[in-house]
Each structure stands twice: as C-alpha cells, then as structure tokens.
Write a structure and sequence with these properties.
It holds the Pfam family MFS_1. Residues 1-81 are annotated as: Disordered. It comes from Streptomyces rubrolavendulae. GO terms for molecular function: transmembrane transporter activity. Residues 1-80 have a biased composition (Low complexity). It is a single chain. The protein has 478 residues and is mainly alpha-helical. The protein has two domains: 89-230 and 238-280, Growth Hormone, Chain: A; 292-478, Growth Hormone, Chain: A (Up-down Bundle). It is 68% helix and 0% strand. It contains 19 helices and no strands. The chain has helices at 28-33, 77-82, 87-91, 97-108, 114-126, 129-157, 159-182, 187-195, 203-214, 219-250, 255-272, 299-324, 329-349, 356-381, 384-395, 398-412, 418-447, 449-452, 454-477.
Amino acid sequence: MPPQTTAPATEPAETPTTTPATEPTETPATARATGGTAPTTARHPDASAPTTAPHPDASAPTTAPAATPGPGAPASAPAARRLPRNPYLRLFTVPGTRAFTAGNLVARVPMGMFTVSAVIMIAGSRGSYALAGAVTATGLAATAVVAPFTARLIDRYGQARVAVPATVLAVLGSLALLLCVRYGAPDWTLFAAYAATATTPNIGGMSRARWAHLYRSDPRAAHTANAFEQAVDELCFMTGPVLAAFLCAALFPEAGTLIGAVMLLAGMLLFTAQRATEPPVAPRTAGLRARSPLRRAGMPALLSVFLATGAIFGSMEIVTLAYVEGPWAGPVMALQAFGSFLAGLVYGSARPAADARRRLLVCLAGMTVLMSMPLLAASAAGSLPALAGALLLAGMATAPTMVTGMSLVQRLTPAGQLNEGMTLAVTALLGGISAGAAGGGWLVERAGAATAYVLPVAAGAAALCLAAAGVRARRAVA
C-alpha cells in the first residue's frame, strides 16, 4: 500500500575493463527531485539483466555482461529509438512493473468498496444509517492511528514481510464484520470488527514507493509515475462504490464486503510476489532510532495542506449527495473523479515542475477557483446537468494538486521511510475528509445544500493560505 551499474550497451559482452564508470554525476537538483537518495553514478537495474558480480560500487571495475540500460540510465541511440514515445508506456518497460501494477489494481479497487458495502450491509440489516455511519467512522479513526505504524514496519522489514500478514488481519476483520451482521451479533461487535480492518496496508503508498525507487534517477519518469498512481486512485474511486452497490443489490447484502476482501488479499499476494521491484530495506545503525518523517522540516506544514485538501473532498461529497439525492447521486459524484482522472493523465505527460512548491500554490489556486463552479451551478443555474458539468471541471484540479503534493512528500521523506511518509499524507487526507464530511452535513442542515457548496471553496482557500505560509516560512529560514 523499489542500483546496479550496467556495462554500456555497445561494449562487447564479457570484455573486462579496469576503467571506472563514466556516467555523468547526478546534480544536486536531480538529487533533490528524487529524494536525494540515489548514488551519484548509480543507474536503475534492469531486472532481467544477467550479472556475474555482486552489486558493484560505481567506482569499482565491472565484468558484467552487456545489458540493456535501465530507465534512469542513458541509452545508446538504437536502444533509445526502441523505447515507446508514450511516457506511460515507457514506465512499463522495466520487467516486473506490469505484474505489480496488476496486483495493485486488484487490491486497490476494494478500497472504494468497503465503506459503501458496510453501510449497505449494516443499514439493511439493522435499519439504522446512524449506526452504519458510526461504525465506518470508527474504522476511519482506527486507520488514521494504525496506518502510520504499519507503514513504518513496512519500511523497516520490507513490503512482503509485513503487508501480507497485515492484510490477512484486515481481511479477517472484514469477514468478522460480515458474520456479526449476518447472525445478529450485538452492535459493539460491529465496531470491534471494523476497527480490525485498520491494519490494511496503504497499497497506493507501497506502489508509489516502488516507482520512486525504480526511477530515482529520472525525475520526469517519477513525475509520470506519480500522475499514473493518482489516475488509478480516481479510477478506483469511480468503480469501487459502483461495484459494491451492484454486488450488494444483485447478490446479497454481504456480497460487497466478501468479494472486496477476496480481491484485497489476492491483489496483495500478487503485488508482494514481485520481489524484483520491491524497494530495499534501508540499513539501520545499531542503537539509533530513525526519526519520524513528521519531524522533517516542512513536513508538518505540508501535511496541514493535505488536511485542508481532504476537507474539500469530504465536504464536496456529502453536499453533493444531499443536493442530488436519489439514484443519480453516484454517477454525478463520479464525474468529479473522472475529471481528475483525465487531468492526471494529461498532467503526467508534462514536464515536472522546477519549483514544486510554487507549482503547488498554482494548483491550489486553480482548485479553489474551480471548486466555486459547483457553488455557482447550484445557486444560480439550479439544474442537475449544470452541476454535473461543474463537478467534472472542478475535479480537473484534483490530480495535478495531489501529484505535486505527493512529489513534495517524497522529496521531504528519506528513501528508507517512503511508505511512512506517504501514509502520513494519506492519514492527513482521511482526517480532512472526515472533518469536511461532518462540516458539510452540519452546513446542509442549517443553510441548505446549495449554500453548503461554499465549504469546499473555503477549504480550498485555507489549503492555499497554508501552502503559501509554508513557502514563506521556508524562505525566511533559508
């Protein structure tokens, strides 16, 4: 929830050499863009390249056979011409990337299924949406507490060693919830069972950590990979709830939870089986405890921006559900995610920002402006097609903002703690979504759904102000 040095492609295989590697040294700007963790002359490994020596130091002689340069390494002219022109297709030229992405997709779709499935299952059995909402809110709170610790264990011991048992515990929690609902167990058991699902690893964070490791010496490819992951997030957000609602209605009320649990475990097993692309565990010095990424300069300010951004999403969702009501609420909400999905694909094809903090300010300013469009559509036009179009446009600011923000998180987080750093960002988002949903519901009851669309605009403005304050603070320190 990813460095071997290869011989030049034009060198005869098995020709020994005593000259040091001649790749250009990584510049400070490139080091910052990749988290500053890549060795100055290391290139990305081709997982399929044969080698006759252990992992070499850049200055050591090599006797390795000729191999195809990795994605972060300079390639010869013929090899470069063979690479796909599409930046997204180039991501998958590294062996193992397609397999771990397939597992990631299978495991990530249930992330959008579980909440909807639990609400349908509990409300249908107990006749109380209040109980269903309280149970899911408890699970969200437990996840916010447990997820960073799970991510820290993943960074320390490796994705495969921790993610699989953590996923098994979460799946058992989902199955326990299903059985408690099915057989009429006391209400408190529902809270306990759903809280157990908090051990679910952040599959999106683990996937981003693999991309960051694979393309640590190629900032542009890393930018494209972050955009791809954000597009996948939006795709799962669109399909997960729809799939859950369909399964619960077409089969039986517990079907969404059951099939989601099976998909989560199967996807995680496939994902973690791809050991060649797994980031190595960072070595630790005996007696020294790694500092939390939360204590890194600039991280608290950035997490506050994620918190405010989450409030945008949470308030927009609850206000839209209250405004639309009925069967069209889901499809209309999906338009916002679809807009973000399209914008993410386009944004990933662009060059990464030279100044990511300034780019984040621009993205947040655009998000604040675009979030005002649903407010105008609901207040002035008052028609569902107008609101649907406004949500589609509003969603187009989401992916660029999230991609830029996650890139900053990666730069601020040490390479050996990437999972923890990105999970902290996700935790901040979850906290903001929860607060935004609560605030949106409160405002809907007191001012009406149309007026309540002012809350996402206010949250966007708050995120922009927090980001600007963080930039000014860092400049003052510098």
